Amino acid sequence: MAETIKDILKEIHAGRIGESGLVRLLSLPTHDEFQPVFDESARICRKHFGDRVYVRGIVEFSNYCRKGCLYCGINKANRRVGRYRLTLEEIFNAAAFMKKQGVLTVVLQSGEDPGSDALVLDAVRRIKGELKMAVTLSVGERDSGGYREFLRAGADRYLLRIESTDPKLFKKLHPDDDLEYRTQCLYSLKKLGYEVGTGIMVGLPDQSLESIARDMLFFRELNPAMVGIGPFLPHQDTPLRGRKNSDIFLTLKTLALIRLLLPKSNLPATTAMGTIDPTGRQQALKIGANVIMPNFTPSKYRESYKLYDDKICVSEEYGKCASCTRGIARAAGKCIVRSKGYSKSK
Ligand code: SAM
Question: Which CATH number fits the domain 18-336, given the four candidates 3.20.20.70, 3.40.50.2300, 3.90.1170.50, 3.30.565.10?
Fold first, then answer.
C-alpha cells in the first residue's frame, strides 16, 4: 500500500479524505491491521465525550407501516405480524418509567404510520409538558408541514436513516420509496431546526465498500447530530430471508471511520450490533460510540416489533434494559450519565 494508514488518517483529519482512502481502510482484512484506526476513533471519542455514555430510551409505539422495505420485518407486506399501536397512556407511562430510571430522552419509533400522527402530537405535548424530557421522533417520511407540526408540539430530534445513498441499491430495497425525497426530508428537518439523526445498514446484499464510503461522505456533507449504524440482519418473513448476516467487524470499521469524519456527532451502539454479536455494543462503545438506546416498549408488544430475526431484548423482563445498559457501559470502561445529551456538533 503506497499510502500508509497514518497518511490516510492525516487526510481524514485535514478534511481531504475521498472515497478511495475510505475504501482502503474499510477493506483492511484483520483487526490487527485496522487497530490504529480503532485507537484513533477511541481517542477522538474520549476527547469529546470523556467516558460518558448518553442514554436514549426507545418506545416502539406502532408497527403499522405503509412502506415495503425489502429487509424489514414490519414492512406492509408481512401479513404474519400482528399490528399494534400503543395508547397515549401506554406511551406516557413508558416515558415516565424511563425517567424514574434516570433516562431523560425518549425516542418514539414506529413504522411509517401517518395514521398515528395525532397520537404522536399528543404524546410529544404530554411528555414535554409533564415530564420535561427530550423527545426524538423516528416515524419516517412526512412533508415539511408534518415535520413542522411535530416540532411545534415540542419534538427536539428526528431520526431518519438514509439506509443507503446508492441509488440502485436504494431503489432495489425500497420499491415504493425515493432516495431524492428521503434526502430532501433530512435537509428539511435540519432547516426546521431539529437535531437530525441519520444512518445506514452495513452489509446489505449487493452493498459494496465503495457504496459505504459514499454514504460516509454524505454524512460528512449533511453533518448530522447523530449517525446510527446497524448491521443488516435478515428476517424470515421478508424477501431477504436466508441472506447472509452482516458482520460486526465491517460495522465497527464503518463506525470508527464515521467517528473520525464527524468527531462530535452522537453515535449509538445499536441493538442490531448487540444482536449480531453478544458483545457488539461493548465493542462499539470502546471504539467510538457514545450513545446506547435501551428498549422501553411494553413487553407484550416487543415480539411484534421484530425488524430482523433473533432481535435481542424481546423476551426480557420489563425495565431490565436500564440496568443491562449500565453493565454494557461499564464493560467498555465507560459510564452512563443522567443527561439529555444535546448535540455538540452544531
Ligand atoms: N419507519 C421509520 C423510518 O423509516 O425511518 C423508523 C423505523 S424503521 C423500522 C427503523 C430502522 O430499522 C430502519 O431505519 C432500518 O435501518 C432498521 N432495520 C429495519 N430492518 C432491518 C434489518 N433487517 N436489519 C437491520 N436493521 C433493520
Answer: 3.20.20.70
